[in-house]
Amino acid sequence: MRADVREVADGTYLVHGTNTNWVILTEGDAATLIDTGYPGDRQLVLDSLAAVGSSPQAVAAVLITHAHNDHLGSAEYLRTTYGTPVQLHEAEVPHARREFLHQVSVGTVLRNGWRPGVLPWAVHSLRAGGTAHLPVAAPEPFPAAGPLDLPGRPVPVHTPGHTRGHTVFHLPGAGVLVSGDALVSGHPTSRISGPQLLPDMFHHERAQALASLEILESLDADVLLPGHGPVHRGPVEAAARRARDHAL
């Protein structure tokens, strides 16, 4: 399988892995990597960096929207192999260290196995390392509020609910929002297309995930780069409202 790399704005790339996405922000050959896919996506992550003219050695930091295995997959590998800092919201740091795990359980998945798409997704997730034990030994909280001093100058915005420390990344100059799992545009277990919340079983606190859509509505962006599904173009405010309508 080849990495599906798409430039969605100048120096901003959405990469489709196997049922999950990550984002690369570039300045010359330097890069910021937002999320890292499943453990099984490692070669795709490396290939995608090469495809945009960068390399793992040139990644200034790995930013993690949340510490589920399908987003955290290669973070510790990059940290230990290349010395790349791994940064998250302070509430998500202990999650990345695996002091606790806010991730859908195998039992919950089995109880929902009758739903369309759930069992094929579960089989893929297991094969890709979805249940692997992958702590990040030394994750770091974001160093300061406001834009990070990294390629792309992403602005972390706390959007709890999917996990306690879930964070989206706003690129105000480019009109882009990297939304992780706070707002997606599709998922193998969903029969809906377009902006939506993930199915209920995936959220640590669904009511808070729903409330966080109000935070997204306040962000000025017209390109949505979700953790799952294709790029969505149009006002993020409208996308968040549409997701709320589907969820209520």
Automatic annotation (TrEMBL):
Coiled coil: none
Metallo-beta-lactamase domain mapped to chain residues: 19-228
Annotated InterPro entries: Metallo-B-lactamas, NDM-1-like, RibonucZ/Hydroxyglut_hydro
Domain of life: Bacteria
One family name in Pfam for this protein: Lactamase_B
PANTHER family in alphabetical order: METALLO-BETA-LACTAMASE DOMAIN-CONTAINING, METALLO-BETA-LACTAMASE SUPERFAMILY PROTEIN
Protein name: MBL fold metallo-hydrolase
Organism in which the protein naturally occurs: Streptomyces andamanensis
Taxon lineage: Bacteria, Bacillati, Actinomycetota, Actinomycetes, Kitasatosporales
